[in-house]
Each structure stands twice: as structure tokens, then as C-alpha cells.
Amino acid sequence: MTSTDRVGRLLTLVPYLLARPGISVDEAAADLDVTDRQLREDLELLWVCGLPGYGPGDLIDMAFDGDRVTITYDAGMDRPLRLNQDEALALIVALRMLAETPGVGERDAIERALAKLENAAGEFAEAPVAVRMAGNADRLEEFRKVVQRRRALRITYYTASRDEITERVVDPMRVLVMSGKSYMEAWCRRAEAVRMFRIDRIDAYEELAEPAAPPPQARSAEVRDSVFTPTPDLPLVRLRVDRSARWITEYYPCEEVHRDADRWVVTMRVADLGWARRLVLGLGAGVTVLSPPDLVAVVGGEARAALDAYVAP
Q1: CA 79, 85, 87: angle at the middle one, nearest 5?
Q2: What is the set of domains in the chain, with CATH numbers?
């Protein structure tokens, strides 16, 4: 069950329970096609959802009579959603942007949602707004032509995993699109290996007079669901994550996920421990590093240093 599935179910749950006061948890779980345990977890989550202010009078409230539940305060979720002009236009622009993004899946669903929203918005949908993905489709075509010219390139590239900008000479091999992102695959003379360069992270490039000449050992990577393919030689990281950080199991390739009631233990390969450090620190209290020891030490040291910064002199 993904986070998106759960959000959709939670939005349905309050009106469903309002229409059936005193319904048993077993019956509600059967109707919603979830387990009793999952439904109880959803009800616990609803207890901390509500209106801005989030005080006792703002949060969704329920009453239990044995195994039966009744909504006593719905925080306004009994009313159908009504969008004003700005909200409707913002959604239309966002959906049009998704539709313009190369490689996005579920395009039929996007088109259907956009058509329904434009129909409901009426004349608001005709506002003079043009949507284009800057630096995406145009730049993709630009680099396709660069690769076709078969010239070596000197590029200035931002490496997100190490948070650094480098200059390198590469021999382009091909351009591809994965998960809405455009990449140039090339032999990197600095790394002496084939590398994938995200096109939107190439800050500048210069075509050289010499032809592109990848060496015989340069082979294009087999790309399926993701540009990043974990291999056994990459560092193995084990994390204990709570509910707030479980989304990483949907977003990143994981080798193992051991689930229990409170916390999950996630095992994943990473291209760079520096990237893993930034991921973990960004997740805050939602994650604990179990291994490798080097990552445990680095994250622990930076976390303690951050806490020390709050100590009053």
C-alpha cells in the first residue's frame, strides 16, 4: 500500500463514517478492503488531522462504543471540495506541466483528470497561460543533436551526490529519458568509466574539435525502471525508519525491508556515502543509521554538532 493509496482512503474515510454512525470496525474494514489493523491505524492518524490551529477543538474527533466508531467532529470534511479560480488554475497548470514532462507514466490518467478539471473550471480554464518545461524538452533535443555530431565535450557538471561542481571532458554515447529526467550517457575521461549525466545539471558545455572516441570497454548500461542500478560493489546501508520516513522505500531501490508495527529496517545500496549522509540528516528523527560504522559515526557527529549549536553560551 503506497502513501498515495492511504491519503485517498483517508479522504474517503470521514464522509464514509459520517454516513454510518456506530458502524463496526470489522464492517468498515471489509467495505474499504483493508485489514482491521490498517483501519485502526487510519483512525489513529485521523485523530491528529484537522483545521489550522490544531488545538483540541480543531482536530477530527471520534467516539468508540466497544468495537463501533462514530465521527463526532469532522473538521469540515463532510463538504464536497470547491475550488476558487486561483486554486483551479493552479491545478490545471500543474497537470499541464505533468503532461508536458517526457517519460511520465499514467499519461491517460493525467489527461482524464485535466479534461475533468477544465470542464468544471469553465471559462477560468481559458486563461492565457502557456506551460513549458524550461530546460527539459528543448535541451533534450539540443543534446541529441550534440551526440549526433559525435564530438567530444568539455562540460561543467553539478554532482548532487557530492554537492560539488566539476569540469570534465566526456565522449558522448547516447541520450535517454527516464522517470521524466533527461540524461546523456558518456565515457568520462576523468573517471575512466561510463557515466550518466543529468542534462539539467550540465551548467555549461563546449564542443571540442576532436571526435568522440569512447574506448572499446565502454558499454551502455542496461536501463529499466531507474538510471541508478544497485550493484554488489556499492556501499550497503541499513536504516531504521519510522512512519514519517517510510516513503524512501517507495522512492529508492531497496534490497530488503523488514516491517514491524512501529519501525521498519531498510537495507539499500547507495552510490556514495556522502549522499546517504545528506539523506539521513534531512530525515531527522525519522531515521536511525544502523550500518555501516563510518556512516553511523559521521551522522552522529554532525547531529551532535547541530544540537551543540543550540546550547546557550
Answers
A1: 65
A2: 3-73 (1.10.10.10), 85-126 (no CATH), 137-211 (2.30.30), 236-308 (no CATH)
